[in-house]
């Protein structure tokens, strides 16, 4: 080993960080956020004892102690550099979606549940399967949405389509549509819908703003799960303005999003490698943006404890590493494996140690 550092004490887990290349040091010093993540991706440092997610969580909880150590300081300060005035116009949003969601359906099949749900599961009991917890999230969401017979329902950011399939198959909605910007998601959603008996949802590859402009006052219900985080800080009000435009006068919308307890910056490593253009708002920012766009709360916000997403991420990371040997090395190399683990571990630590949570906001037009 070139160098090693120990973290933790007798009251909790202990961690040992090994430095494998001196080149990691100038990279981290020059740009702590990018340097820390990129040097980990390149195998220049590793965690020999303990868990990477736990280590990041330790630094998040004890940042003042971590500032005395270069790796700890980099991870703590590497929570992010705010990229100000970043514009997510429809063309850029399409590229951003493709960057993450069009990597390959085989990757997501390797770690998600069979319904391909890439958002927080709602756990009701210890040991509950990921699949059951995801179905609980979907059915809880549909119940809160209040779909009545004959209604037109739109899912903004419909992913691989299971929420729309549940609305079509388990309610009496008249028309169910999902929109996405990811071609791989669109293709699989259509394939799975074709195999359904009875009423089937339809899907379109279109930006939410363009869809709203073309179909004003067309929806009784609008739902969006795990898409709001991609809108971008500059576009929060614009997003809700599109939702308001889509809704009929007595319509309602449910927006499900990761939220922060206080405003914070977006990691430049996350922006570069994982979610270009992404921004996680606070609940207060979300509600204020909705009100500015002409919407109001139809119900007090639903708050889901941080454990739910932390546990979801633990399950995903376990699945990813278990199925890793079966993935195509030509497409997903060792650097990708380390990148994906760094992403999943960092996100898990954000929920376990930094106060991130999931909120669902039910909205209606101001009347």
Low-confidence stretches: 64-68, 72-85
By DSSP, the count of extended strands is 11
Which band does the percent of strand residues land in? 15-25%
**Mean pLDDT across all amino acids:** 90
Shape: globular
Label the structural class.
alpha/beta
Q: State the end-to-end CA separation.
A: 66 Å
- Quaternary structure annotation: single chain
Topology order in helix (H) and strand (E) letters: EEHHEHHHHHHEHEHEHEHEHHEEHHE
Tally the helices.
16
Helix content: 40-55%
Largest sheet geometry: 8 strands, mixed
Gyration radius, in Å: 21 Å
Kindly summarize this structure in a few lines.
With 367 residues, the protein is α/β, with parallel strands linked by helices. It contains 16 helices and eleven strands. The longest helix is centred in the C-terminal third of the chain and has 20 residues, at 334-353.
Written description of the protein model:
Helix 12 crosses helix 14 (283-292) and helix 15 runs antiparallel to helix 16 (334-353). The strands form two sheets. Strands 4, 5, 6, 7, 8, 9, 10 and 11 form an eight-stranded mixed β-sheet that branches. The chain has 367 residues and is an alpha/beta fold. The longest helix is centred in the last third of the chain and has 20 residues, at 334-353. The chain has helices at residues 24-30, 32-41, 52-61, 63-66, 70-77, 90-101, 105-111, 130-145, 162-170, 183-194, 208-214, 236-246, 268-273, 283-292, 306-323, 334-353, and strands at residues 3-7, 15-19, 45-49, 152-156, 175-180, 202-205, 219-225, 247-259, 295-297, 302-304, 357-365. The protein has 16 helices and eleven strands. Strand 1 and strand 2 form a beta hairpin.
């Amino acid at each position: 080993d070139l160098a090693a550092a120990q973290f933790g004490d007798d009251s909790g887990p202990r961690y040992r960080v090994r430095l494998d290349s001196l080149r990691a040091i100038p990279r981290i010093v020059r740009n702590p956020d990018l340097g820390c993540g990129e040097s980990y991706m390149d195998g220049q440092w590793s965690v020999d004892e303990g868990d990477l997610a736990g280590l990041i969580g330790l630094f998040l909880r004890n940042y003042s102690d971590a500032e005395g150590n270069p790796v700890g300081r980099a991870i703590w300060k590497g929570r992010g550099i705010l990229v100000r005035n970043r514009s997510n116009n429809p063309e850029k949003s399409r590229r951003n979606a493709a960057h993450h969601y069009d990597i390959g359906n085989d990757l997501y099949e390797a770690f998600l549940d069979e319904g391909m749900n890439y958002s927080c599961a709602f756990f009701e009991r210890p040991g509950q399967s990921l699949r059951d917890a995801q179905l609980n999230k979907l059915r809880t969401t549909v119940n809160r949405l209040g779909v009545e017979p004959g209604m037109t329902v739109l899912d903004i950011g419909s992913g691989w389509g299971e929420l729309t399939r549940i609305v079509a198959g388990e309610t009496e909605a008249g028309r169910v549509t999902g929109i996405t910007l990811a071609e791989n998601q669109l293709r699989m959603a259509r394939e799975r819908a074709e195999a359904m008996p009875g009423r089937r949802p339809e899907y379109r590859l279109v930006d939410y703003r363009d869809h709203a402009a073309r179909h004003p006052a067309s929806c009784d219900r609008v739902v969006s799960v795990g898409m709001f985080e991609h809108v971008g800080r500059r576009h929060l009000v614009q997003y809700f303005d599109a939702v308001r435009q889509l809704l009929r006068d007595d319509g309602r919308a449910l927006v499900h999003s990761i939220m922060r307890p206080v405003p914070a910056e977006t990691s430049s490593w996350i922006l570069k490698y994982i979610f270009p253009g992404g921004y996680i708002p606070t609940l207060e920012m979300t509600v204020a943006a909705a009100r500015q766009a002409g919407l109001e709360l139809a119900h007090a916000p639903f708050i889901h404890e941080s454990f739910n997403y932390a546990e979801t991420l633990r399950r995903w990371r376990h699945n990813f590493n278990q199925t890793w040997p079966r993935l195509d090395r030509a497409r997903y190399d060792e650097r990708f494996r380390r990148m994906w683990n760094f992403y999943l571990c960092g996100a898990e630590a954000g929920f376990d140690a930094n106060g991130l949570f999931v909120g669902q906001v039910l909205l209606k037009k101001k009347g």
